[in-house]
Specification:
transmembrane, alpha+beta, binds 2-acetamido-2-deoxy-beta-D-glucopyranose, metal ion binding, disordered N terminus, oxidoreductase, 3-stranded mixed β-sheet, Tyrosinase, Tyrosinase_Cu-bd, single chain, 5 helices, 3-stranded antiparallel β-sheet
Length: 261
């Protein structure tokens, strides 16, 4: 398998864009055992193995990074092997840390039903639809994720206990984006999410992940992040007080997101 495919398949093992830790596995016990194979509530077995959803599988350590080992191993390489040696590997269309969910684009008991949502152009949405989108984003910023935590002891001495902290749905997503944008601890390598051929694919997966998290807190299975088509626009048509806000003369942001930190 090519390294790219390997990374992509590991991403699928944990069900989402890489970088965050399932709350189900963010405990000292899981870190000590190096295992993230939660019990699927639906059948009481690890990774839902009793109902054929998946199994607890050992991960390969991956090839050693060629950089200077005295500068430490970058925790993102061969994700998630820095944290876990065993994780749930889901079969078919099942996904999630415990294989208790459906993969992107699937629904239903056995995750066999296609679920298609079309991302519409903001300009073609009604005022009410746009307001609903803004409300969902506000909820993402103010609601703690019940699903993921962020890794907080980055850069700590390798043997130090790993620590995690809760964050809002939006802040977890922001952290994932930040983590994928940094160069490696060895100082080598590009910003993999942005300065390489991975750009489009990485962000496609990222948006699917963010939409899924927002669907989780709003309960709206059809929530989507709209498209902004700027063809034919002379300026930033979404930089309005109704949507993403404008810059004031003093450099402040107006609009619904002005108080976000
Ligand atoms: C949201 O996620 C939690 C934790 O994974 C899950 O228990 C809950 O059923 C989800 N809710 C929805 C509406 O998807
Ligand atoms: C963009 O241009 C339109 C007219 O072409 C104008 O009405 C609008 O105020 C401008 N918006 C910004 C943010 O400059």
């Amino acid at each position: 398998m090519s390294p790219g495919l390997k990374l992509a398949s590991l991403a699928l093992v944990l069900g989402t864009a890489r970088g965050q830790i399932p709350i189900l596995c963010a405990t000292a016990g899981h870190m000590q055992r190096g295992e993230c194979c939660p019990v699927f509530w639906g059948d009481g077995s690890l990774c839902g193995s009793a109902s054929g959803r998946g199994g607890c599988q050992r991960l390969e350590e991956g090839q050693r990074w060629a950089g200077d080992p005295s500068r430490g191993r970058d925790f993102r390489l061969h994700w998630p092997t820095y944290f876990y040696r065993r994780v749930c590997k889901c079969t078919g269309n099942y996904a999630g840390a415990d294989c208790g969910e459906c993969g992107y684009g699937w629904q239903g008991e056995g995750c066999q039903r296609r679920h298609t949502v079309v991302r519409r152009d903001l300009a073609k949405m009604s005022r009410g639809e746009r307001a609903r989108f803004v409300r969902a984003m506000q909820a993402a910023k103010t609601t703690h994720s019940r699903r993921f935590m962020v890794y907080a002891s980055e850069g700590a001495w390798r043997q130090a206990p790993k620590s995690f902290r809760p964050a809002s749905v939006f802040d977890v997503a922001t952290w994932v984006h930040y983590v994928c944008s940094k160069t490696l601890v060895t100082g080598e390598g590009p910003n993999f999410a942005h300065q390489s051929t991975a750009f489009a694919v990485w962000h496609k997966l990222y948006l699917l992940y963010l939409e899924k998290e927002i669907r989780n807190i709003t309960g709206d299975e059809d929530f989507y992040i709209p498209v902004w088509s700027w063809a034919g626009s002379a300026n930033c048509t979404v930089c309005s007080d109704e949507l993403f806000g404008r810059s004031t003369d003093t450099g402040l942001l107006t609009g619904p997101f002005q108080n976000w930190t």
